[in-house]
# Entry
Amino acid sequence: MFTPKSPSIAVLFLCAVTQWASAEDNRAHISIRGIYGGVPTELLVQGTLRDYGVNAIFMGSGGINAERVAVLKKQGAKIFAEFNTMHVATYLKDHADAAPVGVDGKVCPAPHGWQGNCPTHPGYRRFRMDAFRRVLRDFEIDGIWLDYHHSHASWERAVPDMPDTCFCERCVAQFSRETKTPLPDEGTPQLAHTILEIHRDSWGQWRCDVFTDWVREFRSIIDETRPRALLGTFHCPWTDAEFDGALRNKLAIDLRAQAKYIDVFSIMPYHARFGHASDPSWISRQTKWLGDYLGVNGEPGERHRIWPIVQLSDWGESVSSNQVRSIMDHGTRRPATGVMVFNWGSLKKQMGKVDEMAKYYREIQP
Ligand SMILES: [Zn+2]
# Structure
């Protein structure tokens, strides 16, 4: 048993413990305590969202309607729409020329079933911009979050599959034109080889620029239709160095360039899904990296905010209710100033985890 030899040591010890505890428990910098995945009607049967410490709901833009908006407004909750940018697979049924093309010149199969679209297909881009504008025009939402804004790839897992795309004639010609890169008159397999071997850097940057330009246009639509709404993005949680720089080189995500248009970065550190099931501290490490990378500290008044989406659902690996508190702790450390849990559709069947989430949210609720 610990028996301090002098009162001063005991006092010092107590001070240290108190200081540690208050640093851990103080989450006054967290303004958003969210749930992702639709209106949690199960929580509203006997109480209010505030009873659960929740003040924000994220839901798919296709699931938003006037009634749901009214329910959440009545609760005083913020409403954020999730918007699928590059992964509307149904578009390909009538527009086969929007399918991403691989290095062999053929349509690239969907890795693990994650189907993307060609980023330079003008019809697909217009289709998404029109849908984006409609959501903002029709519903009084507080923000809209880009989702799947990356190339044709499967990365929401421990071992990703990220084929090189898109080598359709349109993409290759646009790359050559916009970067002033002369290309020989060859078939796609040879051209793809030349591009990846000789022009790898400019190809990678050009692809990033194409995806960033989508973000620029999304921003301009917000500015025209609902300027107070925030523009957020759900994005891959890797650092710029992991998987050989795949964030940029494979997924075409240039976070710093997108920061010109984005307000909130919702990094997706799904610790269990990404091979860190027993290490929730991975969440705060990845978030810290993002803050350093973007120059975000989690202080009031900063232009950019970081609101991680953390995994409480069983996906890939199960997440126990015993771990929820640690996940919430790591998800709410600076530079984060908001957090949301993934996802209601699954959590509503595991109320033990919801109880743990609510306990934490209530404790940090002002
Ligand atoms: Zn293409």
